[in-house]
Amino acid sequence: EMSDDPKYWNFLLTIGEKNQWQTGPSIYFADDICIIQPYAMLFNKYKEPRMIKKSVETLDTLIANPRHNSLSYYADGSHSRWCWCDALFMAPTSFARIGKTTGEPKYFEFMDKEFRITYDSLYSATDSLFFRDTRYINMREQNGEKVFWGRGNGWVMGGLAEMLKTLPEKDKKYRPYYLDLFREMSERVAELQCKDGFWRASMLDPETYPDPETSSTGLFVYAVAYGINQGYLPKDRFLPVVTKGWQALVASVDTEGKVCWVQPVGQAPKRIEKRMTQVYGTGGFLMAACEMYKLAE
Span 74-102, mean pLDDT? Predict the structure, then answer.
């Protein structure tokens, strides 16, 4: 969208065609419906119904046949619900995009119902952060603090930004809840930024996990910069946060263009080495770059 270079759109079109515009194999698993987000973007540009036809069918099936399993991590069928905080980037954003694209309120209704169930299960109101899943609620880090995973909370913040993009501006039913949560988490995230501009894999125990972590940092910079650009967050308070975070992200790119210091696929804080990278780290970097570019304009 920012470059308007057709090669990026063509790349996404190729993925859509290769997948035959289908979602992943398990429609109840949040990760497997995340692909709906680019499908909806492509439909909004090209207006070809086949691009979202199967996405709409998938989400309609979920709405018509909801799961009622416990969100306790080890409970039978828990992963058919949004029982881990990363899921709040993967699934509700897809419902929100289809809700905006179709104008049908049922997608926002389902999104909101399931999101709030996850919030009630995993959000610590005293800490303004999400536990990764129910296993971590009673765990403690070496310094005695609670275990709050950096990237997990980055996924939530990125997801909230995406949802605020799609919820109608005049909406009074859902939007205030998500905007309040976004602001609350933004304040806490800003407080926990380290002096070098990065966030750590463990948000409350940077001593045990001293390595920079770029996937969480990219998602936090993206979300907070988006909040500034939209007027949701005061610029004087948060501009230093995103500026320092962006400088840290740029410094993490090596001479070959690789985004370094990305924690590998996981579920909890782990030690990291500079050479480590993953595509979601690059994705978070690019999302942050887009909002920082707008901010610079």
Answer: 98
